[in-house]
Amino acid sequence: MINTKDSSYLEMAYGLAEKAKGWASPNPYVGAVIVRGGTIIGHGFHERPGQPHAEAIALERAGRLARGSSLYVTLEPCVHWGRTPPCVEAVIRAAPKRVVVSSLDPNPIVFQKGVRRLRAAGIDVTVGLLGERNSVLNESYIKYITRGVPFVTLKAALSLDGRMATRTGDSRWISSPETRDYVHLLRGEHDAIMVGIGTILKDDPRLTVRHPQWTGKKIVRIILDSALRLPVQARILTTLAEGQVLVFTMNRASYRKRAALEKRGVEVIAISGQSRPIEAPEVMARLGERGIASLLVEGGSRLLTTMIEEKLADKLFLTVSPRLIGGETAPSILEGEGVRLVRRSWRLRKVSAFPIGDDIIIQGYF
Ligand SMILES: [Zn+2]
Q1: Helices marked H in 152-267 — which ranges?
Q2: What is the pTM of this model?
């Protein structure tokens, strides 16, 4: 039986789960609240990989009072031994009367098994309330755990006429300082950032997360560089303490250059195949194997075009600033021939927009 209080306790659990955003990945963001006689007797969220799960923390806090209580958890309790023991067994031992699970865990080794196990132990289980919140909060986890590749967001700063830079390649700065600050906030939510080598050669960016909310956050920086043109003096290589730098290249790239970059602390991964650019689907698979669940692709235009045309992108995040740049050769996020008919164009779904000063932030899903 569902009552209105269930929604508010689950909302609380989601509020806790959100605190893990950008930190717990590649694990899901999960929160839990335990209630007995209208009083919250335990709460928790899964903070980082390797640390206790949300239910385990909440049960620990509740102690013996958990017997006969109601447990609210945003995601189905796990049934497997990972770096921590299965939560479902801890829940059964604590013997709550009722468990309210917002969403089933899409992880095939957990899916439905957690709920089934709880029911088999005689616990009253309710599933599905506010499940759509989990679909948004854990969008990266859901793709990563079911398909083994990261959830990909494309990000670009555009002028009002859709240019990412002028015809000379100048792009500093199209968006306002406030918008750029917001983009750093967004960066921190991801496991990794990826750019093409052209962006490094042109702008020499550090690609770090510079925002007070993300102090101590390490983010993996990925560069697609088929001919290993990454300079050993590139600024990004001075920031290895803030996150690893991975360079994807081709098998035939210079061995000497590769050794020089590795000496600087870069990890170089060679992908087989003759075609240029580097096979992006292969890169996605390799990133998935390394536990990268969410990826922010920041350009340049050629890489963004590849990600769109090869259907590797899940989400688009654009900042649009009130400037007109013009120029037939000024880059846009989708290059190439383009579609012939409007009905063949890429149409985004679930679009939302909001202003930051004079800029507009637009996001949507492919
Ligand atoms: Zn668990």
Answers
A1: 177-188, 197-203, 255-263
A2: 0.95
